[in-house]
Structure formats: C-alpha cells, structure tokens
C-alpha cells in the first residue's frame, strides 16, 4: 500500500491536470465536457477516500504554496525568461487597476506552485517596491482549506495577521505582516483554485485585453479576428470587402 | 481481515475523529454559504458558521433540521421545488411520499452520482466479497430510488449485479444457484421467504451452494435468533447495512464478523454496525438533543460530509439505534459502533413489503363512519410472505345490508392510499379490545422478528 501522503500529492497533481482539461473545454456541454465533469466527480471521490477534504490541497488541514509574486520592470523580458527559457505555461494574467499593475502567471510541469510576475504601470505600492528594491521577490501566497483555522494557528504562534478580507466568498484573504516573518510578505487565501484562462497570450495581456477582476482574469477586448480562411471557402462579398 | 480502504481503516481513532471534525465544520460552512435550504433555515437563527471549530461546537450551535423543514422550504420555491434550475443538477431523487406529508426532492450533481455507491462497497468488501463476485439484488426499482442505488454499490465494489426484481421466488432461488451468487441483498422478510422456498424445494445451501458468502439485510429490524438460524441454513454471514436518501448511500454496516454472534453458551446476540464516519457523521441523540451514552438508544441524526448538490447537516432521521462504545466490535477498525438488528422508527412507522407505512395514513382511510375502530396485524404467511389483516368494527345499529361491500371498498382505498394490500374482516364493536395508544392497534408477528434469548 502506497504512503497516504504520496497518494494525496499525486491526487492533487491529477486534480490540476483535470482542471486544465476542463478549462480548455470551456463551456463545452458535449460528451467531452460531460466526461470531464464525471472524471472530476470520480477524482473528487478518490481524494476524499484517501483522506483529503479538498483535492486541490494535498496538505489537508494545512496550507500549500500557490504562487510566488515577483516584481519586474520589463514584463515582456520577464515573460521570455519565465515562459520561453524556463518552460513555464502562461495560465493567467491581466491589468489590475486598483493596484496599478499588470501581471502574468506561469505554471511549471511537476510543480504545484506558480510564478506571478508583477509590473507596475502606475504609481502605487508595487511601483514603490520596484523603486526601493529594484524588483525581485515580493510576496508568497499560500492557500488554506480553512482560512479561519489557518489564521487561528498563525496568531496562536504569535504572528500578526493584517488586512483580513472576507467580502468575496470565493476569495477570502489575509496577510502576515513582514515584521513578524523576517521580511517576507505572506498572503493566506481560502479560495477556489484558478482554472487556466483559455486563449491568454503575453501579447494580449500587454495590449491590456485582459483585466484582473473579481479575483480572476477576464477578457475585456474581443479576440482579434481569426486568420483569413482559404479563399476558396470565402463568400465573394467578404473577399471583396477585404480588398 | 478484509480491507475496503487501507487509508481510512489505517487511521487511528484520533486521526479519524480529526478528519470527521474538519469535514463536519467545513460541511456546515459550505451549507450556510451555498445551499438555498440551509441559507433559508439558518437565516432564522443566530448561527455564525465562521466561529465553529470542533464537532462539539457543531453539536452545540448548529440547529437540527427535519423532513418537515425541507418540505416547508421546498414549498417556498417555484413549482414547489419541482423545477430547480441549477444546470449542474444531473438527477432528481424524489422520496416516496408515503408519510402523506409530501415528497422531498433531492437534486444530485455529478459529484453525488460519482460517490453514490462507494459506502455500500465497504459493506460488501468487508463481508469478503471480491470484484467479479455476483450479488443478487431483490430490492425492486419501483416506488423508491433503492434500485438504482444498489446498482451503484455493485459498480463501486466491482461486483456483478444479478438483477432479480422480476420473476417468482422460485426463479430467484434457481438463479442463485445458476449464477453461483456470492451474495444476496434483500429485506429480512424476503430472505425469510427465500429460506422457506429453499427448504420446501429440498435445497441445502450450506452444502450445495458453496459460492454464497454473505446475505445483506436492510430495511427493517430482525431478531438475533432468526439471523443466527438464517446464517446456519445458508452457510453464509448475515450482514446489515443502513442508509437513507439523506445519507447518499450506506452510513453504517457490519464487517466480516456479521450482524449476529453467539455467546459462550451459544445464545445468539446482535453484533456491531460500523459507522462509515469519514463520509457521514452520525449522532445518536435523546429527545432533548443531548447525546446518548454508549449502550443507550436514541434518534439518528446525520451530517453528510461530502460536498453535495443537496447538503445534509444535522438532519433528524426519525430512525433510532442503540449506540455502542467505539471498539465494541473487536475487529480493530477505528469507527463508531452501533447495535445491529435494532434500527427502527422513532415514530410508529412500519415497514411492510419495503413500503413505509404510517398508522396515521391508514387511520385516515379506515376511521370514517360507519367504522368506529380497527385492529391490524402484520404477519408471515405459510410461504413467508408478509401479509396484513385488518379487523374493523362498525357503529352499533349499522344495517348490515348498507355496508355489505365496505370491506372490499376499504381494501381498495388502503391499497390506493398507502400502497399495501390488506385482508379485511368485520366484527361486532363489543368484540374489539379497548386501546389507549393508536400504535397498539397494530401487532407485528413477522417471523423475522424472532429474538435470541439475550436480545433486549
Ligand atoms: Zn468490526
């Protein structure tokens, strides 16, 4: 019999894979969409039977590292490094008006945690961080199955929890003051795992076609038209119009 | 010792309780945040789900719900709850409605359907059945959702269901041999009937049906002596499972030790049901809501721990059971324990031929002029079938010719209202004994109720 901890970690990997499959299917209600739903249902049962309350969370009652936030001055150059050269897959991103930033989120094969690149586009706390420190590690975000229980444990150990925000049920968060963590800003979140955003590209984020709203990326500008279809299948009027 | 799930069975009691505690707190919070029923129900209370930490918090602060609350809520919905618009719903499970209070509606989503049969698989695998074994299912598809549910339990355990809903008892007996079944799932009453049929046919299953490992009972209480004799005749372990619509499958079941054991002097005694605690948190409570002590009987209150399209949190089942101390079984599994064979109704509901029958519902049909009183009896006929006879008394001075066809009309009315056939006889009013409690109008003389000397 396999070790329960390893079974749970493997289940969490499988869960992320199934979520990726379902994200690519989008709102497809065909057999693929329903099969994806049924696989997710069975995998959820598997997770429960190996002792996981939440298949996205191999640690059970504890927390897991969701992403590392890194501040950069040049988002395109950073995308080349973290995406093309280091082999990351772009899974989310967009402009965040409130924070004055634009972001790209990369996931890596075999790694549970993602990298979030943050580029300031307006004055604000992230811009000040860039000016003061020249960029680099900005924050760590941990997911907790139960924010209340996680914060109980942290405050019980003498840490200072600040900025608790539970307004959105799907994204409840709090921060640990860097003064108590030897300098690192730590965010603790109880929320749903983010499904990869279908169709997102570095260029479209840099063109501000994606906006970070309600804790997830949303496309705000229509996708550019598809490349022209072969002329033979085009209606004459459409061909005329393009000339 | 057969193992259904090494992770869960490998936990110690503290680990399992820790899991149940976290899952129960999460279930309350999820229900309070996302379930229309519980949002509606908790809005009338001062429940603060974010303050709950432990099972004890849940026990003290989360109000219990009843079937009536659910029905009241459903009446607030468009179509009386019959047209839930949630696109994630994949099945509507309707209860039979034989209580007369209404039919509860349980929406099921893909997660529910994926998990429906899993707890039932524990019962089969613990009893020693293995994937590929054949299990005869006799509990019919009609009236209830039990049929589809039993199919799913077979799928979850890898068993081959042999569907025996149609046909005669003789057909089923033949198929038990023909398919070399390893198990039978049936009500105690039906098992009794099969036993009589097998005896009459000269069968000796303990020796001539070696494939049979276990008999899975559900649906009604049974005596230890009867279970002991049944196990001996069939050469199989008599097992038991308890579950309900609300628990989304089995919530308690026996292990390889079965539902009946013998004392040192050979006296049969009911054995132990294990709670499938990691899926369903079971409380056994006094009428005032306090937990009963081990050895005492109380009402079963369930909390479904898995996420579901219809969360179930502290739902009062109106079934009662005797709670036992953890570890009572002696098999070493870390679960909660309950007395097998003893689950019955808190109210006076009777289970007759698999149908839930409330005396109130029969009263409503029978106790109309000129009938002034009646007595009912449920018994096993000479072929082991459950039968019901009812004796009615007319008001003094009722002219006989005006009520000549009343027994046959009442028979039809009972069949229509409660779904069971009854034989009706008429006596003079003076011949009927006085009874103070309406439940005492009924006597249960079914053979499966035969008790062991040590039963109590
Ligand atoms: Zn046991």
TrEMBL record, chain A:
**Name recorded for this polypeptide:** VOC family protein
Q: Which PANTHER family match?
A: METHYLMALONYL-COA EPIMERASE (PTHR43048), METHYLMALONYL-COA EPIMERASE, MITOCHONDRIAL (PTHR43048:SF3)
Annotated source species: Phytohabitans maris
Keyword set includes Cytoplasm: no
Under SUPFAM superfamilies, the record lists: Glyoxalase/Bleomycin resistance protein/Dihydroxybiphenyl dioxygenase
Tell me which domain of life the UniProt entry assigns to the organism this sequence originates from.
Bacteria
Per UniProt, which keywords does this protein have?
Metal-binding
**What residue spans carry the Low complexity bias annotation?**
231-243
Ranges where the VOC domain occurs: 64-191
From TrEMBL, chain B:
Residue ranges annotated for the AMP-dependent synthetase/ligase domain, each copy included: 128-302
The domain of life for this entry's organism is Bacteria
Where are its TM segments located? none
Coiled coil stretches, renumbered: none
Q: Residue ranges of the AMP-dependent ligase C-terminal domain?
A: 354-446
Q: What is this protein called?
A: AMP-binding protein
Provenance organism: Phytohabitans maris
């Amino acid at each position: 019999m396999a070790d329960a901890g390893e079974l749970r970690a493997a289940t969490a990997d499988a869960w992320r894979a199934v979520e990726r499959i379902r994200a690519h299917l989008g709102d497809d209600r065909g057999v693929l969409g329903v099969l994806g739903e049924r696989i997710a249902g069975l995998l959820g049962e598997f997770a429960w039977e190996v002792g996981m309350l939440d298949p996205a969370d191999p640690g059970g009652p504890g927390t897991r590292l969701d992403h590392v936030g890194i501040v950069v001055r040049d988002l395109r150059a950073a995308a080349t490094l973290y995406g093309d050269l280091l082999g990351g897959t772009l899974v989310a991103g967009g402009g965040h008006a409130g924070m004055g930033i634009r972001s790209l989120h990369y996931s890596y094969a075999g790694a549970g945690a993602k990298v979030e690149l943050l580029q300031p586009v307006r004055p604000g706390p992230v811009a000040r961080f860039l000016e003061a420190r020249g960029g680099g590690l900005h924050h760590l975000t941990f997911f907790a199955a139960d924010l209340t229980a996680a914060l109980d444990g942290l405050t019980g150990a003498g840490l200072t929890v600040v900025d608790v925000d539970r307004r959105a049920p799907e994204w409840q968060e709090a921060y640990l003051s860097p003064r108590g963590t030897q300098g690192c800003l730590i965010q603790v979140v109880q929320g749903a795992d983010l499904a990869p955003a279908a169709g997102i590209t570095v260029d479209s984020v840099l063109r501000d076609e994606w906006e970070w709203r309600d804790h997830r990326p949303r496309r705000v500008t229509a996708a550019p038209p598809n490349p022209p279809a072969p002329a033979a299948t085009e209606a004459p009027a459409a061909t005329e119009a393009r000339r | 010792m057969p193992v259904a799930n090494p992770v869960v069975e490998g936990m110690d009691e503290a680990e399992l309780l820790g899991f149940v505690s976290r899952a129960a707190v999460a279930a309350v919070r999820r229900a309070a945040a996302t379930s229309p029923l519980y949002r509606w129900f908790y809005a009338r209370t001062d429940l603060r789900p974010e303050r709950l930490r432990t099972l004890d918090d849940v026990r003290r602060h989360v109000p219990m719900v009843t079937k009536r609350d659910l029905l009241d809520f459903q009446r607030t919905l468009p179509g009386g709850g019959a047209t839930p618009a949630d696109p994630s719903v994949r099945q509507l499970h309707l209860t039979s409605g034989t209580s007369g209070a209404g039919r509860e509606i349980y929406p099921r989503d893909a997660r529910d359907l994926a998990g429906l049969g899993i707890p039932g698989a524990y019962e089969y695998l613990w009893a020693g059945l293995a994937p590929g074994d054949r299990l005869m299912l006799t509990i019919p598809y009609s009236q209830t959702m039990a049929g589809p549910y039993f199919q799913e339990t077979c799928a979850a355990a890898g068993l081959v269901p042999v569907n025996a809903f149609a046909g005669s008892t003789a057909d089923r007996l033949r198929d038990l041999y023909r398919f070399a079944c390893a198990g039978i799932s049936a009500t105690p009453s039906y098992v009794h009937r099969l036993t009589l049929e097998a005896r009459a046919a000269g069968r000796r299953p303990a020796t001539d049906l070696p494939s049979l490992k276990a008999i899975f009972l559900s649906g009604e209480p049974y005596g230890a002596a009867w279970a002991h004799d049944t196990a001996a005749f069939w050469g199989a372990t008599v097992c038991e499972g308890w579950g309900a619509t609300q628990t989304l499958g089995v919530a308690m079941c026996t292990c390889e030790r079965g539902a009946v054991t013998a004392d040192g002097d050979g006296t049969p005694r009911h054995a132990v049901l294990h709670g499938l605690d990691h899926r369903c948190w079971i409380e056994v409570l006094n009428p005032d809501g306090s937990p009963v002590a081990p050895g005492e009987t109380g009402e079963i209150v369930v909390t479904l721990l898995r996420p579901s399209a219809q969360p179930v949190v502290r739902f009062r089942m109106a079934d009662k059971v005797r709670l036992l101390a953890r570890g009572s079984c002696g098999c070493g599994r870390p679960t909660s324990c309950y007395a097998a064979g003893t689950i019955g109704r808190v109210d006076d509901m009777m289970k007759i031929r698999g149908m839930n029958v409330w005396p109130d519902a029969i009263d409503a049909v029978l106790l109309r002029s000129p009938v002034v009183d009646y007595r009912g009896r449920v018994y096993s006929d000479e072929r082991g079938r459950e039968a019901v006879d009812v004796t009615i008394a007319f008001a003094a001075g009722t002219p006989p010719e005006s009520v000549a066809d009343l027994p046959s009309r009442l028979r039809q009315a009972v069949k229509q209202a409660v779904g069971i056939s009854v034989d009706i006889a008429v006596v003079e009013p003076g011949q009927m004994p006085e009874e103070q409690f309406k439940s005492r109008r009924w006597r249960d003389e079914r053979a499966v109720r035969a008790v062991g000397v040590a039963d109590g």
